[in-house]
Write a structure and sequence with these properties.
Number of strands: 24
Helix content: under 10%
Number of helices: 1
Order of helices and strands: EEEEEEEEHEEEEEEEEEEEEEEEE
Shape: globular
Largest sheet: 9 strands, antiparallel
Strand content: over 45%
Distance between the termini: 29 Å
Radius of gyration: 18 Å
CATH class: Mainly Beta
Low-confidence stretches: none
CATH architecture: Distorted Sandwich
Strand order of the largest sheet: 7-8-9-10-24-20-19-14-17
Number of domains: 1
Amino acid sequence: MTTTISNSALSVTINHKGAELISIKNTDSNREYIWEGNPDFWGKHSPILFPIVGTLKNNSYTYKNNTYELSRHGFARDMDFNLISHNENEAVFSLLSNELTKEKYPFEFELRLIYTLINSELKISYQVINIGSDILPFSIGGHPAFALHKKFEDYSLQFETEENLISYELDNDLLSEKTKQIDLLKNNLPLTYSIFENDALIFKKLKSKQIQILESNIPILNFKFNDFPHFGIWTKVNAPFICLEPWVGYSDILNTTGNILEKEAIQILESNSSKEYSFSIEIL
């Protein structure tokens, strides 16, 4: 089941499974900006990463002397959300903790995804609400994949400000201490598949809070992520998409204790409180 919101500039479609963004189309040109989800490369479009981002060591963690199994990027992306409000320009989806989630994640929560159209911009907000009496440890992130209609090498990423980009490399999907520097030319990163031969670029911090996608040196999309301290950039070799991934949290480090309360970059939400994170996609 899907829901569509639209205005004079854009039409946006969201799948109720995972409350996943599956389409952004320009009303005038009918151009599609979201990756089609071809499973030959990657069968998703823009999944929500919750209650973890990335991978846990041994795909498990401990809490109060109990061990829980939780697969890469968590479970929210694979669950059906309820549409709790909808008008022409906005749709709000909700996922509540239940017996199924508590087998993997023993916490009471509500996760809301709010999609709002403002002219040529789509704002996507994540609301994490602790509805239980215990604390709520979590990570959260976005994983939108943008369709590239020309050759991959015709595209580049323009960072908002001058950056000293340090990418942390993965070791069996865990974050190692090995890093590599990503060189920019006037804040611009030309896209080549060789950059991603060892998987994603993972940044624990960026000065930029906006990144533009350039097609043949012309900006086509502005990605804004002011609420997110960590960031990933990813594609699969020969795939015609690029993922810009705003995160709060990231994969376990190699020497993690496994205790979720000691996980690097974990967020702790007190009982009866909430936290909201937003990013936006502006079509230029």
